[in-house]
Fold:
Amino acid sequence: MVRIAKQTYDLTPNEKYTWTDRTYGKLRLIPGASTKLVSTDYGPMLNIDIKFRMMHAESVLDLLDFGVKNQDLERRFAVVSYSSKAIMIDRLTTDIRADDKFTCRVKGEETEMTYFEYLCMKYPNQIREGDLKTRKQPMIVVKDRMRDGQESYFLAQYCYVTGLTDKMRTDHNFMRDLRARTGGDAAARAELTQQLVLPQRTNDRFYSILDTWGLKLTNHLLALSSTKLNTPQINFGDNSVTKAGKWAMFDAASRRSHTIAIRPKLDAAYCILADARGQDDDFARELEKQSRDIDLPLRMKYCETRSTKIEYFLEELRRINDKAHSDEKILVVIMMPDKFKQGDLYTRIKQMTLKSGIITQCVLCAPRKGGNGQKAQMVAVQIVAKLGGVPWTVSTRGSIPMDGTMIIGFDFHHSKAGGTKASLLGCVASINTETMQCWSTAVEVATDDPIADTNILCEVFSNALNAYHQAQGCFPQRVVVFRNGVGESQYLNVGRREVRGLASTLEAASPTSKLCFCLTFKNNTARLFTQEGGNRLNNPPPGTVLDGEAISNQHGFYEFLLVPQSVTQGCVMPIRIVTLHNEITMLTAQALQSLTYQLCHSYFNWFGTIKMPSPVEYAGRLAKFVGTHREDKAILPELHDGFYWI
Structure:
């Protein structure tokens, strides 16, 4: 076993997790686990989550022979084979060789020997005299930060690099293959969990440590009772309804046969393209057809650029912006050539969106198998949401009345755009909760000053309340806040500080209004399985809820786990909701569960459920969009409505 970062991994060779990639060579996956002791009313429980880490099967020396550069290996984790130790590579050096001598103490006496001789002496079972491949191989230098940068040296032929490179992460084919190898169904994940933990039960030292604390570790997963929420009803504009299917995605027939719930305002639409007689034009015509089918009369004026250079696209966009009136709702569809997939055309266009207020929709022109119909339909739905319309609404039966209720999502994004670090707070607040029409903004915050953060949060909250009042003529009676972006170790202090600030802001605006404040955790280590047909374990269906004594924490807040969506491969991960403050008496535990699940159906960039409540997902996307593309700090007033960033 070896510990890398915060996880422990099993280095036992396993052919099942070893393969050869044509681009990256021979690779292997090392299974491991992260563990956490959770204090619950049920008693202390050990939370185990399976992790995989990729490791090169070839040593650092082999990678250098294959042409990998030294700088590509620096600041990466590696495993030393003879000691099963994880190291962070600081640099590689040829100033020190394996046959260089140094002085060390052996059995109390000062002895001079080479580095390789020292390794043979210390690890006789792993290293022998004739194992050295070449005496000219570089040495890996590792600095010990705990000992004032003291350096240690490791032979390159015994070190194996772990982790993914940036090139691997952007290689979609490689990542798809990697997900297929690490996915595994629910039964496989449960079996691997027990395999990694149960062997330790034969270790006497393991038992003695548990006995010291009066603890026992069971040899099976904990069985609990769960609840299955009703699937909410999806409402469209032609008074037709549907429900999410088995995989929590709207069926293809529903996508074809229904019209949007609320049509947006649109004064003019343009299409900028480089080829008016090629696949760009074909997709644009299909987009107009799909828009008409969902009751969005999209008639675009076509503007052909002189070439595929970026400046010609921006020139056309500026020309359209100069002709537009300030009170007009303008849409510009840009058909981007495939060569700009990794370029900066998209960034330049979105920067103009933030500066001018014109809604833009970028489409990457690439051939698609089966035609453009499905892609064009998804783009048409995106356009509806960007312009402030509503593609569909979700029934809220079983939760609380939406009339007089305001739902707000907060999330942070830490940006490095322009070479400067900044944190942005995204806020998306419903001004008509029945239709999920929202007001939104993103502001910069000072992350090193928690008091200033809270003050900015309260200022944004006050602006959202005023936007609701302007739209409805009154303040909301009930405000439900979903806050994301708080770590496990700090949520208690951060949450309580923000609850006090938001509660006082709401009381100042409307003394009779009530507040509910919930924290959302997207990535948690809990895994849920259902047992069907004997001992076979499967992923739980969407809408599965687990609460009660098995997951409540020592702070006494109500929390629950929710499975909002399905996965076709791998193991589903539930989200965790912690309620820090709730003054709304009608928002019971079951009503809050239903409301959270219903909000997972209101994300207008996907025909189905998403993992988080839509206001939180929108807020995170908005903060990231503005943090990545902004040039000015302020958001234009005309961009406060509509989901222009999806």
